[in-house]
Amino acid sequence: MAKMYLASSWLEFYPRKTKSARPNGLTIFLAQLSGHGIKYNPRICYNSFMIIATLVAVFTLGLLSLFQIALALGAPMGQFAWGGKHRILPHNLRIGSMLSLFIYVGIAVCLLSKSGIIHLIPQGTLLDILVWTTFAYLVLGVFMNAISRSKRERYTMTPVVILLAICTLTVALA
After folding, report:
1. Domain limits at 27?
2. What confidence tens digit (pLDDT) does each residue in 114-150 have?
3. Could you give the CA distance from residue 139 to residue 166 in angstroms, rounded to a whole number?
4. Closest CA to 46 of 19, 20, 26
């Protein structure tokens, strides 16, 4: 394991082998959990709540992705999605399930970039707008699932989307 040293300009630990490399948010969070004494630096937008919220949201999006893939492949779980009218989704809704995967990946990339775990989208106004737009999309999803005619969709997906909206709000505000 590489020895760590304290970089006084950032008040964070860096691996000795890569002095110029800046650690991502997950590295900082894990170091905080392991008790390496890393102090939170307000100049950098990383904090534990943001990292936890991001990881919970990405895990939930992963589970939803598996669900959508199963629906697209013809699994008899249609009562939990798309209004709950069909036990097995028709062709056009199967395509919708596959397209929803792109939305889930986009949401995950936005949240991971905002929390600093990955750096695909640079920090700034664009990323802030994307995260707040994601939050608005999820709030709309809460209402759409809450008014669904399918009890199964209403009771299953509404809490899932509420969880995603809370996690996204936590990331947006941090």
Report:
1. 4-34
2. 988 888 888 889 999 999 999 999 999 999 999 988 8
3. 9
4. 26
Of 35, 174, 34, 36, which is closest to residue 117 (Cα–Cα)? 174
Based on the domain organization, do 109 and 166 belong to the same domain? Answer: yes
Number of domains in the chain: 2
Q: How far apart are CA 109 and CA 115, in angstroms?
A: 10
Of all helices (H) and strands (E), which one includes residue 56?
Answer: helix 48-72
φ/ψ of 6, rounded to 5, equals -90, 120
Do both 29 and 52 map to the same domain?
no
User: What's the angle, vertex CA 62, arms to CA 168 and CA 73, rounded to 5?
Assistant: 135
For the stretch 44-98, pLDDT in tens is: 445 778 889 999 999 999 999 999 999 999 988 888 888 888 888 899 999 999 9
27 shares a domain with 113: no
User: What value does the CA radius of gyration of the chain take, rounded to a whole number of Å?
Assistant: 19
The answer to whether residue 39 is domain-embedded is: no
For the record, the structure tokens of 9 come out as 């300009």
